[in-house]
Design a protein that fits this description.
It contains seven helices and 14 strands. By secondary structure, it is of the alpha+beta class. The longest helix has 17 residues, at 78-94.
């Protein structure tokens, strides 16, 4: 295992947090000035967001299709061959069908070089958990190795080396795992909160956004002391580096924005905490 991190050093992962408040506001102002058609006011969140109009989308690169395209090529370069060798190894060892894998990043876009990484996805939560265990066994067998650059890498274990090449893997929902629909809920931000809690369901923690169902909400300060009806039942991370960093039964420390979530069609109301709102720099999820 490669380790270059020390526990408690916040600086080690700040570079991964591209979706910070300062960056987001700068992006938003730049787009408003230069690309106004890419700025959209969302009535369900009561805020401006950066969003490409459908009329401006010429092509969608689907990871599964990109992998199939590489498989079908008659001439493959060394990185394409290595990518296929890696996916075939994982498929054979895990029993996950090759059709449930995909590639993204520079290899998928055919923009790679000899220094590029291998970025793959697996479709479905169940397949992701199988793949986690498979990679762990392959690491034990010394066919792969983990790469940990910080504390979050160590928690996620999503990065490693195959034949000397850096790889990363993530999860994509299958159609049947998509439970949300735009416009079904209205989200109202209320206040920043800091607290500890226990994860009681990690079944959607590997996706983006990462969703952790929680219990045992314990405020870290007086401002986070909430009435019973406003205690959050979910922690939702829009920041990719907080995917899959805690499992069921784990305790986590959270700083984020408390939101009221109201169904547009029914009387359902619940509360969640969002990490990665673009409002504050101090939003995080830490495993305890």
């Amino acid at each position: 295992m490669e380790r270059t991190w020390k526990y408690g050093q916040l600086e080690l992962f700040r570079a991964e947090k591209l979706y910070t408040a300062q960056n987001y506001q700068a992006f938003l102002e730049t787009f408003k000035k230069n690309f106004p058609s890419y700025v959209y006011f969302c009535p369900f969140r009561d805020k401006y967001v950066i969003s490409a109009p459908l009329s401006s989308v010429e092509k969608v690169y689907v990871p599964r299709d990109c992998l199939a395209s590489i498989i079908g090529q008659n001439r493959k370069d060394s990185l394409q061959k290595m990518t296929l060798d890696f996916v075939n190894l994982l498929s054979n060892e895990s029993g996950i069908a090759i059709e449930d894998f995909g590639v993204h990043g520079s290899v998928a876009l055919n923009m790679h070089s000899s220094k590029s990484d291998i970025d793959i996805v697996v479709y479905g939560a169940e397949n992701f958990r199988k793949l986690e265990k498979t990679i762990e066994k392959l690491v034990e067998a010394k066919k792969l190795s983990y790469v940990f650059n910080n504390r979050l890498d160590a928690a996620r274990r999503f990065k490693g080396r195959f034949s000397g090449k850096l790889f990363m893997y993530n999860a994509v929902r299958k159609p049947g795992e998509i439970h949300s629909k735009y416009g079904a809920y209205k989200f109202t931000p209320l206040a920043p909160v800091k607290f500890t809690c226990t994860v009681n369901d990690d079944s959607e923690a590997m996706f983006r956004p990462a969703i952790y169902k929680i219990e045992d909400y314990t405020p870290a300060n007086q401002a986070s002391n909430l009435p019973k009806e406003k205690i959050p039942i979910l922690v939702v991370s829009m920041i990719g580096c907080y995917r899959n960093i805690a499992r069921q039964g784990d305790k986590i420390k959270v700083a984020g924005t408390l939101e009221r979530v109201e169904s547009v069609c029914t009387d359902e109301v619940f509360y969640q905490v969002v990490v990665g709102t673009g409002v504050s720099e101090e939003e995080y999820i830490w495993p305890i």
